[in-house]
Specification:
This protein is α/β, with parallel strands linked by helices. It has helices at 17-31, 58-62, 93-101, 123-129, 145-156, 162-175, 196-208, 226-241, 278-287, 298-306, 313-331, 334-348, 365-381, 384-405, 416-438, 442-456, 466-484, 488-491, 494-506, 517-523, 527-540, 562-569, 577-605; strands at residues 38-51, 64-78, 82-87, 108-116, 119-120, 130-133, 214-218, 245-249, 263-268, 271-276. It has three domains: 17-135 and 249-348, Rossmann fold (3-Layer(aba) Sandwich), CATH 3.40.50; 139-218 and 356-382, P-loop containing nucleotide triphosphate hydrolases (Rossmann fold); 383-605. Helix 7 (196-208) runs parallel beside helix 8 and helix 16 (442-456) packs antiparallel against helix 17. Bound molecules: adenosine-5'-triphosphate (ATP).
């Protein structure tokens, strides 16, 4: 399509009825009362330095190139308005949203400013100013809508009585038309719950609990059918009308929504190609020579006009040049200049309104931990199949050992020592794996299994003394808890660490005294060392074995006393019993602290 280069001003329209209606709508919006809040984005740019090629192509991998992801983006939005950001995939919509919200990764260089009510937002203030609804709904499947919002409110709001939280949750549910599904479960992939649109509304509701003035939403309609997507956008418009600023990135909205947005921005290759009211948009593109044909979706048409087609180098050059021309025209237009004037006015206003922070009086860490624990437990406990599977997994594991060992003998020649060591090895080696597989839920399940086993007398014929059994159970539980506290470790090498821990620390595969000195030192860092010593002492201390004369293994009867066996494999372990217990249990707070520290470091380091 051959087009003329558009004039740099937005003059009157060409008189089409649809455009007039958009224009009158825009004018009406302008006449509305002065906004209580405004958001200004001034010359925001974001560049990243990236490798020119993949790691297996060494010459290009060694070269670095700078890539401009956002190029001097400026825009201004007032409260009561909803801004829709459009653009083809990879145009920079999410990055712009992240830059506004102060969530951009540290992998690149961000410049420019974000203002609220004419006051510059410092990076550390961003989190307290904006509510950000992510593209995916991170909700616990087995909780009801009301429970989900109540727990979120308990985590977010301090100095709120239970009654106040209840009222807040009811008000937010009413605002988002969720009251009728308040007692329905969220649902998951394998069991039905509320609909996708309702789920999205729960995610938005979670953010509204803190009364934000500015809400940013990254593609809230993705994955929804077009009618539900429309309903979500209309709902967001309603939220904006209640004196909020709503900024939403969106893919392929239906044409009816054209009149719903207060402002529409189009991004392409990191450039803000246009940002203005729907009526202004029609006029602007018409004057650029890019008319929206009748019966066509203006969103699709204008995004097409501004997109860069990279299929061939010729198309890329032509479409890039067209996009560049439109962007230049926009920057020279009255629409852009008036936006800059509004921003300037807000910056230089003598009585600037304070930054409207969200209610951020969140409770103490301990209270939060309690809420998280209750929430997780309630969610897990409702997972009938999951609970059943965990119980049966451990039961089968126990039964397997029972049938494998049948009943332990006291005769050394019949494997009395070997069998016991085998069971202890299993207990130390296998329990962290079940911990990994069951992650957070395992501790409860294990305790239930432990109760069940003791009631059923399934103690596999090991030492019957209840105190010793308690000690044994307490030792076996540690690996579970250690793994449970940091489920991320499951994915990042805990299996390897466990194997290494058994090799170095247990002394089963190679006696600790025979290992090179460096491994002997390393063994002190493994919880397996302490748990093995404890289990060996717990089981073997005070045991006197028999040894039948029919033994064909030479030397099998040399060690027939439990204490001798301990001293042979784990010298001094009997006198270290209490110390070993203390050291073993000190892994819990130590690893908890390590987990918290690694989360904190991750928070700072991980980009996007
Ligand atoms: N930290 C980064 N390092 C390298 N490239 C980045 C980084 N952040 C964003 N990009 C690139 O910038 C471009 C814009 O990404 P962005 O996610 O903002 O696009 P988008 O318009 O939201 O796309 P979509 O609609 O597909 O979600 C993409 O090509 C992305 O790969």
């Amino acid at each position: 399509m051959s087009r003329s280069f558009c004039p740099p001003t937005a003059g009157p329209g060409n008189g089409r009825t649809v455009q007039e209606s958009f224009r009158s709508l825009s004018e009406k919006r302008e006449e509305q009362t002065a906004p209580s809040c405004s958001l200004g984005v001034s010359n925001v740019s974001y560049t990243v330095s990236e490798r020119a090629g993949p790691w297996w192509d060494v010459p290009s991998f060694r070269k670095r190139r700078t890539r401009l992801i956002l190029n001097e983006v400026s825009l201004h939005v007032n409260s009561g308005e909803i801004l829709g950001i459009l653009g083809n995939s990879g145009s920079g919509k999410t990055t712009l949203l992240d830059a506004i919200a102060g969530r951009i990764g540290r992998s690149g260089t961000l410049s420019g400013d974000v203002f609220i009510n004419g006051r510059r937002i410092k990076p550390e203030q961003s989190q307290d100013c904006f509510s950000y609804v992510l593209q995916s709904d991170n909700l616990l499947s087995y909780l009801t809508v009301e429970e989900t919002l109540t727990y979120t409110a308990q985590l977010a709001l301090r100095r709120h009585s239970a009654e106040a939280i209840k009222k807040k949750v009811s008000a937010v549910m009413a605002e988002l038309s969720l009251t009728h599904v308040g007692h329905s479960v969220i649902g998951g992939r394998i069991f039905p719950g509320i609909s996708g649109g309702e789920r999205r509304r729960v995610s938005i509701a979670s953010q509204l609990l803190q009364d934000p003035k500015v809400i940013l939403l990254d593609e809230p309609t993705t994955g929804l059918d077009s009618m539900t997507a429309n309903q979500i956008v209309v709902l967001l418009t309603e939220l904006a009308k209640r004196d909020r600023i709503v900024i939403v990135t969106i893919h392929q909205p239906r044409s009816e929504l054209f009149r719903v947005f207060s402002r529409i921005a189009i991004m392409s290759c990191g450039e803000l190609v246009f940002c203005g009211q729907p009526g202004e948009m029609v006029d602007f593109f018409s004057q650029c020579g890019y008319e929206c044909p009748e019966y066509c979706n203006p969103f699709d048409i204008y995004v097409d006009f501004t997109s860069v087609d990279t299929r061939t180098s010729e198309r890329e050059a032509a479409t890039f040049s067209r996009m560049h021309d439109i962007t230049s025209s926009y920057r020279a237009s009255d629409i852009y200049q008036s936006m800059l004037t509004k921003m300037e006015l807000s910056l230089h206003s003598s009585n600037k309104v304070a930054i409207p922070f969200k209610s951020k009086e969140s409770p103490s860490g301990l209270v939060k931990l309690g809420v998280l624990f209750r929430r997780t437990m309630r969610n897990l406990s409702r997972d009938r199949m999951g609970v059943l599977m965990r119980l049966s997994q451990n039961l089968i594991y126990g039964l397997f050992i029972v049938f494998f060992v049948v009943r332990l003998d006291d005769d050394v020649a019949k494997g009395a020592v070997q069998d016991r060591i085998g069971i202890i090895y299993q207990a130390v080696g296998a329990s962290p794996y079940t911990g990994m597989l069951n992650a957070v839920a395992l501790f409860t399940a294990l305790r239930a299994i432990g109760d069940q086993e003791s009631q059923d007398g399934l103690t596999v014929g090991m030492h019957p003394d209840s105190l010793r059994f308690l000690c044994f159970s307490a030792v076996v539980l540690v690996p579970h808890i250690i793994v449970v506290h940091n489920p991320n470790m499951v994915n990042s090498g805990v299996a390897l660490l466990n194997i290494a821990g058994i090799l170095v620390g247990s002394g089963f595969l190679r006696s600790t005294q025979q290992m090179p000195e460096v491994f002997q030192w390393l063994s002190y860092l493994t919880f397996q060392k302490y748990s093995c010593e404890l289990l060996i002492v717990t089981e073997f201390h005070g045991l006197n074995f028999t040894c039948s004369s029919s033994s064909i293994i030479p030397g099998a009867c040399v060690l027939a006393q439990g204490s001798e066996i301990i001293d042979q494999g784990y010298p001094g372990a009997q006198s270290r019993y209490v110390l070993d217990f203390l050291l073993l249990y000190s892994f819990l707070p130590a690893l908890l602290l390590l987990g918290v520290a690694s989360f904190k470091i991750r928070e700072r380091l991980v980009a996007r």
